[in-house]
Amino acid sequence: MDDTEYIDTIRQFIFLSCRHLLSEQDRDAYSPTRGSFDRRYWGWKIADFPEATYQRNVLPLAWALKQHKNCFGLSDTILIEAIIDGIDFSLKIQHDNGSFDQAFPNEYSFGATAFLIHPLLEAFKVVRPYAPESLRVRLECSIRKAANFLCEHDELHGLISNHLAGAALSLAVCGDYFHERKFLQRAEELVGRILVNQHEEGWFVEYDGADPGYQTLCVYYLVQYNLIAHNQILKEALSNSLTFLSYFAHPDGTFGGEYGSRKTSLYYPGGIAILARYNAVASALNNKMIESMVAGKTIGMGDVDMGNYAPLLCNYLLLVDIKKTDLDTNDGYVLPCNQNRVCTYFPGAGFFVYGNAKFYTIISNSGIVKVFCQKTKKAVWNEFGYVAQLANGKLLTSQAHGTSVLLSSNPAVLKITIGFAKISTLVQSPIMTVALRLLNLSLMRNLSLNNFIKKIMVFALIRQHPDNRITLVRKVEISNDDIIVHDEINIATHVRLEKFESGRQFVAIHMASARYFPAFVSTGVKKSFDIDQVNHEHFLVNQTRLSDVVASLEN
Questions:
Q1: Cα(418)–Cα(366) distance, rounded to whole angstroms?
Q2: pLDDT tens for each residue of 245-260
Q3: Are residues 417 and 495 located together in one domain of the fold?
Q4: What is the pLDDT of residues 481-524, one digit of tens each?
Q5: CA distance linking residue 277 with residue 289, whole number of Å
Q6: Residues 41, 118: one domain?
Q7: Helix, strand or coil for residue 471?
Q8: Which H, E and C letters describe 242-292, residue by residue?
Q9: What are 118-158's pLDDT values in tens digits?
């Protein structure tokens, strides 16, 4: 299949996804929620507020309208009505201060506001000839308020680079539309914050660490921003970002994973497709991942829920609209997963990558080990870490942020030290929901208190806190033919365990964008340890050879 056929296939994915959006949207002419894309809210009526970021889906519908193909039942008349209704509903759910809600009522979300301006404005440009003048006036007023909110407030519960990049793009587009320098200056300030925090290894910060999946989304926003700003420093930063990202395209076509700070395996292709016009690393990554997308080897539109539907679909739009220039080849650049030998350590990110003709492996300082067979191009081992269940039912895991040091590179020997941390298993309950809604309707109307409570939520759900009662010292030795993982686990003498096991697939923190199929597929071998012996000795030694794991899988 050549490049044209790949793109044509992805274009068909987009049209089918747009058709699906018409089922997610309330298109009832007499419904008070007409235009909402949150079917949980208007259809099932199990949500008590509409998720504002779902309204980004007007942009894919606007793209379909520009094609004028009327395929899959997407007639111009239907699309125009759906886009106008979607924009109209978005304006109805905006707060007076210009913000929108994503996670709960009266959230005044910086991220939701950041993500909405660009798609609403771009979609309106397409339907403007068909829209009433009153909608233009209301939209422009709404967009100004939203942009002013982004100028006057910050996201305080964590440094999330893709959110800042989304805000920068929206503000730049807004500044360009209204010819207002204030919006452009704020966009430049936000990009500057991303760049000053970019690690020298090339990664952008996502909740205190590197996450290759979300970094591709950050690149999507930054590249589009730079089409307006033409910032040479940002161009160089994006080049460094691509070099880092290139290591996390796997031989089997998946990308990123549980070793990242946000555990995501999503690949957003739009920004990298633009960079592929002049950057050899981007070209190689773009070519591999397009093939993977078409083959269904990476997470696609059929795999994600509505929370990631709009951003992934909008990336597809950018991908198929890219017109290739002179860079038809990747200039001889070979992705790390296809090189004869790779041995690269990213101590800041906590990632170690090793590859040769036999296998390709990624190890994180959270103890995760992913190994791919170069011959079959399949994952042969996903080691997610140990899980200990205490007598009170609490779960602790070695899948936590640890420290790593590369002892030698030939042969490669990596030593990792990890303090077990609690697995986040918190889910909503009726009591918690009532308590949260009481806060939403009272104290959290104050933006300062709102931000403080969100920090507490992030602390409880995402940030891990080592429990030094159990520690793991892992030594990984890698030769040309085998990988040996030698573990020593120390347990405090006053701790009694009910269960201790490894080899199962899990994610230790709350992260809604993790655990999508097909990337979240177990290839581990479950192993349970003699709990009486563990409780008696408070010490455990466990050694695993990759050759033995592969042999057991083959049998």
A1: 7
A2: 999 999 999 999 999 9
A3: yes
A4: 889 999 999 999 999 999 999 888 888 888 888 888 887 776 66
A5: 15
A6: yes
A7: strand
A8: HHHHHCCECCCCCECCCCCCCCCCCCCCHHHHHHCCCCHHHHHHHHHHHHH
A9: 999 999 999 999 999 999 999 999 999 999 999 999 998 88
- How many domains does one find in the chain? 3
Quick one: which of 377, 493, 473, 490 has its CA closest to 417?
A: 473
Compute the distance between CA of residue 319 and CA of residue 273 in angstroms, rounded to an integer: 6
The answer to the question of residue 348 being in a domain is yes
Please state whether beta strands 386-390 and 351-355 pair in parallel, antiparallel, or not at all (unpaired). unpaired
Q: How is residue 448 written in tokens? A: 């300062």
Cβ–Cβ contacts within 10 Å for residue 212, how many? 29
What's the CA gap between 321 and 324, in Å, rounded?
9
Enter the DSSP assignment of 204: P
Is 446 inside a domain boundary? no
Residue 147 lies in a domain: yes
The answer to whether 379 and 550 have CB atoms below 8 angstroms apart is no
C-alpha to C-alpha distance for 328 and 149, rounded to whole angstroms:
43
Task: Determine what percent of the chain falls in helix, strand and coil, rounding each to the nearest 5.
Answer: 45, 20, 35
CB 237 within 8 A of CB 182: no
What angle do helix axes 181-197 and 212-229 make, rounded to 10 degrees?
Answer: 140
First to last CA, the chain: 35
In the DSSP assignment, the letter for residue 52 is G
